[in-house]
């Protein structure tokens, strides 16, 4: 049995060895002159030939589409994607969003309601209030920068300069002079003739510090009436000998009642929006 298998295996090997050259030879002889001519033509078209007739490497061309206007479209897409990625930081840092959100958190903490309203509600309210307050600035940016750039009336550099000008004007109205001077001293910028010469990189951190200061001042004012209620309730419980009862459990309903009677949301949001005008 094993001898038959061994003989069959040897026969297969010999057949493969002797049959391969014959197949290769027959295949090579079947090539026509036309096929060889076409191959030589393709080789000549896809290669670089120097003066001596030597075939060099393939030529690599990078077509940016500048003639067809593709390069401008590519750069516009890049700018749009960059703005989209930086949009959250821009909305938070250079608009009224920071002050509004901090004040709303102070209101919730003063009421002692823990997670009511939830963070999503406060952030959404702060976002829509920001759109309401910043709508004139956004409209100006759209009219002076975005539309002219889309129509090809100005260059991208001019669009950036025109677009950032309304934001600079808004921030300079809200920033405190001492905060602006602080960052000018850190940046070693001396006295300037006009605010137009102050770099935007100095205005933005000064504006953020000013927003934090104003938000904390408003939060302190909001806390005062609620602290009075906590003190009255705590004194009453101590005089009644109910020391084991947490004062916040009793004072929270009274604080909510006071907030409702005073129309707290309308009062706080109305006065908060007026601080930007």
TrEMBL record:
Residues of the signal peptide: 1-24
Keyword Transport: yes
Membrane topology label: Multi-pass membrane protein
PROSITE patterns: FLIP_2
Keywords: Bacterial flagellum, Bacterial flagellum biogenesis, Bacterial flagellum protein export, Cell membrane, Cell projection, Cilium, Flagellum, Membrane, Protein transport, Signal, Transmembrane, Transmembrane helix, Transport
GO annotations of cellular component type: bacterial-type flagellum basal body; plasma membrane
Subcellular location: Cell membrane; Bacterial flagellum basal body
Pfam families referenced in this protein's UniProt entry, alphabetically: FliP (PF00813)
Transmembrane segments: 77-107, 119-138, 214-233, 254-273
Record-level GO BP terms: bacterial-type flagellum organization; protein secretion
Family: Belongs to the FliP/MopC/SpaP family.
Primary role: Plays a role in the flagellum-specific transport system.
Protein name: Flagellar biosynthetic protein FliP
Source species of the chain: Anaerocolumna sedimenticola
Lineage of producing organism: Bacteria, Bacillati, Bacillota, Clostridia, Lachnospirales
